[in-house]
Amino acid sequence: MTMTNRLFITALCATTAACATASRTEPPENYRYGVLVLAHGGSPEWNEAVRDAVRGLEDDDDVEIAFGMADAKTIQEGVRRLEERGVQRIGVVRLFVSGESWYERTEQILGLAPGAPPKPAAEVEDHSQHGAHSMEFWRIETAASFALSTEGLAGEFSMGEILAERASDLSRSPATEDVLILAHGPGDDEENERWLADMEVLAGAVRSARPFRRVEAMTLREDWPEKREVSEQRIRDYVARAKAEGGSAIVVPFRVHGFGPYAAVLEGLDYAADGRGLLPHALVGSWIKRQARTIERGPFREPIQVRGR
Asked: Distance (Å, rounded) from C-alpha 64 to C-alpha 288?
């Protein structure tokens, strides 16, 4: 676990008691372990890239994918399918850039921490859309116990190898090239600094790969208009400066998949990009496997008992 993620989980446990509310369980004999991968999801290409990344894991474990940003509906469906195959202990691998993303919300949906309401008695129209994704929030129904991954891709050093590969593939004259590693970013300022700190570590791999003129990591802070406006200007200034100083810019998205909204942000500027995020790449699949093996060792927690059930 990276230092930033360790501090985050420690702080979360201290402030919400999320890590102490659900009972911890010892593994039963001959228990069946399964993996639920949480991923943002998006276009058919986005989703298929995630499916490709987890296929190697399916050789060893029962695996389901729940697309959406900790969406109760897809989590419930994935858990139900695993339980139908006899899985009693579920490792939840959270395939997000930051280990902080949707952590507390996921615990609440799984019943490991208080805060999620019961599942609605009937289907209701979901008004909490985020892009193309539902974000239903309620406690799922399950008899399983769970262990959650706490690390994000930003805390995994091998992701720097992917970024270096992407930048090198686009490079023609590194001494005159400015590389921009660009990520979504959160709304909270302190959390954003933690994103940037992790990304700066990964940027070291890019600097080592070739003698680029500059390498910088930035976040767009996409979903917070006022903060995004400031970030957009900083990003555009960085890319424009590369040409003004007689060189060129390379933009590498630090996203699970794709280029996101960056083409629109950079409209009218000269830069090189191929639109590839971290997927497809074998190192992401390897990371998923390691996460699944690590959390299999537990500790697992059972959902909090609800009175009257």
From this structure: 13
Question: How does DSSP classify residue 271?
Answer: -
pLDDT at 169: 98
Q: How far is CA 192 from CA 101, 201, 216, 231, in A?
A: 11, 15, 15, 12
Residue with tokens 């058919």: 44
Is pLDDT at 229 greater than 70 in this prediction? Answer: yes
Query: Which tokens belong to 41?
Result: 């999801």
Average pLDDT, the chain: 89
Q: Which three-class secondary structure state does DSSP give residue 285?
A: helix
Q: Which structure tokens are listed for 167?
A: 């930048």
Q: Which CATH class is domain 157-277?
A: alpha beta
- DSSP letter for each residue of 151-184: --GGG-THHHHHHHHHHHHH-S-GGGEEEEEEE-
Could you say which DSSP state residue 282 is in? Answer: H
Q: Which amino acid is at 13?
A: C
CB neighbour class for 190 (10 Å; exposed up to 12, middle 13-18, buried from 19): exposed
| Residue 260: per-residue pLDDT | 95
Classify domain 3-150+283-301 at the CATH topology level: Rossmann fold (3.40.50)
Would you kindly state where each structural domain of the chain is located, as residue ranges? 3-150+283-301, 157-277
